[in-house]
UniProtKB/TrEMBL annotation, chain A:
The keyword Acetylation applies. GO terms for cellular component: cytosol; mitochondrion. This is Histidine--tRNA ligase, cytoplasmic. The keyword GTP-binding does not apply. It comes from the Eukaryota. The gene is HARS1. L-histidine binds at residues 130-132, 157, 173, 177, 326, 330-331. Transmembrane segments: none annotated. It comes from Equus asinus. Belongs to the class-II aminoacyl-tRNA synthetase family. It catalyses: tRNA(His) + L-histidine + ATP = L-histidyl-tRNA(His) + AMP + diphosphate + H(+).
UniProtKB/TrEMBL annotation, chain B:
One of its GO terms (molecular function) is histidine-tRNA ligase activity. It comes from Equus asinus. The keyword Cell inner membrane does not apply. This is Histidine--tRNA ligase, cytoplasmic. Residues 3-59 form the WHEP-TRS domain. It is found in: Cytoplasm. Catalyzes the ATP-dependent ligation of histidine to the 3'-end of its cognate tRNA, via the formation of an aminoacyl-adenylate intermediate (His-AMP). Plays a role in axon guidance. Its main location: cytoplasm. Residues 390-417 form a coiled coil. InterPro entries: aa-tRNA-synth_II (IPR006195), aa-tRNA-synth_II/BPL/LPL (IPR045864), Anticodon-bd (IPR004154), Anticodon-bd_dom_sf (IPR036621), His-tRNA-ligase (IPR015807), HisRS-like_core (IPR041715), HisRS/HisZ (IPR004516), HisRS_anticodon (IPR033656). Belongs to the class-II aminoacyl-tRNA synthetase family. L-histidine binds at residues 130-132, 157, 173, 177, 326, 330-331. Homodimer. The keyword RNA-binding does not apply.
């Protein structure tokens, strides 16, 4: 028994070591080595010996949906689905896992975040990481050359969820994609229209859609002097500009990724720019950028895109932002990301994004990777990040509930306790007749009747005391 | 290279050997041994060396749902969900995988069919096998003592799917359960009422609901002389009576499972019986069965159940069937299974079941397995096997040659001449902003004929045609695709 306890301790310590290495972003080989040691130790422990553990939790990074949360989810999906249907999309569904080979080589650095299934003697399987690669597989498998489809389902990523920021290991994606060879930028424009319609209908506040193009990025890196091999890694540094300052990004590029400082500066001149169609025009005149064939293509397409966005009535929500880089390898053309805006604290302050709620882009090469003859089917699409939206809508509904006609007093008091609200002003029929309001301290439960006209003063007095001993 | 080819051949042969052993139902240890050899061989092969394979299939036992199949699925779910809601159920959802420990020890022999996730250094996980164990975990975790909930989601079982019979490794379950300590048999009766309502509304043909009770089965086995240790395995033999003859079942019990022939015969006398509430009465008078306390409890509850079923108007659909055994270990009381009936070929022939479309029962001990204090929460529920229903509804729609639309678009915005893309974009945007379901072709200068054809194929009823002359006049031509009638409208 002592031997088992000692083994269990070794397993625990080794588990810590593995977690530590992952946090420090140690090399893949080192992590793999320590994980192998961990698995060997666990194997020595042997199978659990019937000791009934009371496992009352969902796996890390996952959660149940209570009836209340399901109601929120249903409201949000209704808005999203009716928008997809309004635009004539069909709906499909695919299995929760794919053959491991299907997902291999499609996600770049993110591949390490894929959940694999145990090899139980059959096919090697992995849980889907997104809905885009399954879509490409579906198109190739059914030899489809065009389709407009939406797909709402959960996807799986083994990253370290910061739960409070609404990120999970199992989460919903709502994808809409248009596959097919069409005249340029019309489907791309419709995707942006859909994004704007959905975010407006959900009424979760003001938002902004940033737009850029993979070819403009690559062209820009080329003329700034970034070596080809560093394109993707510089891309992911640049992508951080929405969260950190240019100084920090430059330091990462020069200090950690070995980029020459002059090259970094030249990048800086470009990527800190954002604007409307006038910026596109401006860059088309840029002496260096206009020499780069790729960048020219991208700029030309963005110009056409903006023309369509004006006709579709959404140009005021769109910002051409040269710092938008976006993680995934498979984008080939236009890329976009929608962020919610916090209201400015003071007039004149620029609104800060608080994280992306939707994103997408064009990916013309993905289906060809699945076709035996390499036949290409161009695709463009978007994905709505609903988990973030669920929590926003949930908060909003909680507030609403208290405005319902005959809410129970108990629920209101409970709400105060949970939300930390120190006082509650209770309106009652009798008190109304007497011209008073009952003011109650949530903490002490003491109640006192205050005359209506004195209420504000009393509340101010109590809440201005240090430590608010209301 | 030759070495690799030889290795690949060894892997293939070993894979065949493993599959063969599984088919012959060889012992678990033997299979495990050969699987281990297979894994070692595969490991020697090393990681795939960048040779791009064109994997154009879904994993074995799984499938995509095309837009047409989704339309069928949506119809079926609508019927089921409105029934659940009509009976006041709330809805929940749970993760697709649970901690492996949560599922361990809950499914008896079926445990080998569970999909495990690879140990990647974190928690050990398995894909859910049903929605009942997650429900019990949810109840215990949230310390709930009563709830009426439904849950519709996919579950995962690694068995050998006979695809033509509509069985898959990934498939939907629609579960409805009532948890809580209530007066006997009322919730149980409501579950049967729900099952009947759903199967009637779906209009998939006549059906029959077989009912039995775990306590009657166990009591019956006891008085027939079945050793305790053989209860579960004899149970699963008896369960086959809906598919094979009594002779075959008896042979399996005596020949393969070592049951004494006299015991088998005694079982045979009971299990070939089925009927209505009169059979319950009859068995309550049975000199041997009525001596067994468990059987008496079960029979008493079934008698009460039938009283309620008569009041709920569904007694004519229910058959008390002593051969109904049902696989899962966690049932503790009433169990039931609904089967579709083929129409008899000739008058007087008895309808044959063609497989179960719904099932359920009472399971009072499951939540207690999750509670640290062992607190019990009695539960009763049902599960609708929708995959079978999907294929039936699909066939029915094909037979009726009903055109199932896969989109809901109301109007296509079209242009009669070239260079009208701007106008189309403006108009379609107006329609979308007004909540109208509209589309346009992604062509700058599409031919009118192609646009009309698109409407016909997709079933879009209206087309709004922008033309140069009409633009000058300030109108749009609205045309019915079916009747070809046209009218002019101001935008």
């Amino acid at each position: 028994m002592a031997e088992r306890a000692a083994l269990e301790e070794l397993v625990r310590l080794q588990g810590e070591r593995v977690r530590g290495l992952k946090q420090q972003k140690a090399s893949a080989e080192q992590i793999e080595e320590e994980v192998a040691k961990l698995l060997k130790l666990k194997a020595q422990l042997g199978p659990d010996e019937g000791k009934q553990k009371f496992v009352l939790k969902t796996p890390k990074g996952t959660r149940d949906y209570s009836p209340r949360q399901m109601a929120v989810r249903e409201k949000v999906f209704d808005v999203i689905i009716s928008c997809f249907k309004r635009h004539g999309a069909e709906v499909i569904d695919t299995p929760v896992f794919e053959l491991k080979e299907t997902l291999t080589g499609k996600y770049g650095e993110d591949s390490k975040l894929i959940y694999d299934l145990k090899d139980q003697g059959g096919e090697l399987l992995s849980l889907r990481y997104d809905l885009t690669v399954p879509f490409a597989r579906y198109l190739a498998m059914n030899k489809l050359t065009n389709i407009k489809r939406y797909h709402i389902a959960k996807v799986y990523r083994r990253d370290n969820p910061a739960m409070t920021r609404g990120r999970y290991r199992e989460f919903y994606q709502c994808d809409f994609d248009i596959a097919g060879q069409f005249d340029p930028m019309i489907p791309d424009a419709e995707c942006l229209k859909i994004m704007c319609e959905i975010l407006s209908s959900l009424q979760i506040g003001d938002f902004l859609v940033k737009v850029n193009d993979r070819r403009i990025l690559d062209g820009m890196f080329a003329i700034c002097g970034v070596p080809d091999s560093k394109f993707r890694t510089i891309c992911s540094s640049v992508d951080k500009l929405d969260k950190v300052s240019w100084e920090e990004v430059k330091n990462e590029m020069v200090g950690e990724k070995g980029l020459a400082p002059e090259v970094a500066d030249r990048i800086g001149d470009y990527v800190q720019q954002h604007g409307g169609v006038s910026l596109v025009e401006q860059l088309l005149q840029d002496p260096e950028l206009s020499q780069n064939k790729q960048a020219l293509e991208g700029l030309g397409d963005l110009k056409l895109l903006f023309e369509y966005l004006i006709l579709l009535g959404i140009a005021d929500k769109i910002s051409f932002d040269l710092s938008l880089a976006r993680g995934l390898d498979y984008y080939t053309g236009v890329i976009y990301e929608a962020v919610l805006l916090q209201s400015p604290a003071q007039a004149g302050e620029e609104p800060l994004g608080v994280g992306s709620v939707a994103a997408g882009g064009r990916y013309d090469g993905l289906v060809g990777m699945f076709d035996p003859k390499g036949r290409k089917v161009p695709c463009v699409g978007l994905s709505i990040g609903v988990e973030r939206i669920f929590s926003i809508v949930e908060q909003r509904l909680e507030a609403e509930l208290l405005y319902k006609k005959n809410p129970k007093l108990l629920n209101q008091l409970q709400y105060c306790e949970e939300a930390g609200i120190p006082l509650v002003a209770i309106i009652g029929e009798q008190e109304l007749k007497d011209g008073v309001i009952k003011l109650r301290s949530v903490a002490s439960r003491e109640e006192v009747d205050i005359r209506r006209e004195d209420l504000v003063e009393e509340i101010k007095r109590r809440t201005s005391e240090p430590l608010c001993t209301c």
